[in-house]
Amino acid sequence: MSHKNNQTIRCTVNQCRYHEQTENYCSLDGITVGTHETNPTEDKCTDCLSFERGK
């Protein structure tokens, strides 16, 4: 599957459906960022809610 490279969203999660496989970018026009914590205080408390597992 060929994706368009969105150079404004960097991504290193190769397993995501929207990862542009030849470079570390996302192919979506925009993403949603959320949290799994009540009071996030560190970057590891946030999540890309646009993530979908690729094939």
Q: Outline of this structure?
A:
By secondary structure, the protein is mostly beta strands. 0% of the residues lie in helices and 27% in strands.
Largest sheet, spatial ordering of strands: 1-3-2
Care to count the β-strands? Answer: 5
Mean pLDDT score: 93
- What's the end-to-end separation, in Å? 10 Å
Q: Helices and strands, in N-to-C order?
A: EEEEE
Based on CA atoms alone, the radius of gyration comes out at 12 Å
Shape: elongated
Fraction of residues in β-strands: 25-35%
Q: Return residue spans where pLDDT drops below 50 for at least 5 consecutive residues.
A: none
Helix content: under 10%
Tally of DSSP helical segments = 0
Main pleated sheet: 3 strands, antiparallel
Structural class: mainly beta
How many domains, in number, for the residues? 1
Give structural notes.
With about 55 residues, this protein is mainly β. The protein has one domain. It is about 0% helix and about 25% strand. The strands form 2 sheets. A 3-stranded antiparallel beta sheet has the order 1-3-2, with no helix packed on it. A hairpin with a 4-residue loop joins strand 2 (about 20) and strand 3 (about 25). The N and C termini lie close together (about 10 Å). The relative contact order is 0.31.
Task: Provide the descriptors you would attach to this structure in a database record.
55 residues; mainly beta
Q: What's the layout of helices and strands?
A:
Blueprint: E1 6-10, E2 19-20, E3 25-26, E4 33-35, E5 46-48
Antiparallel strand pairs: 1-3, 2-3, 4-5
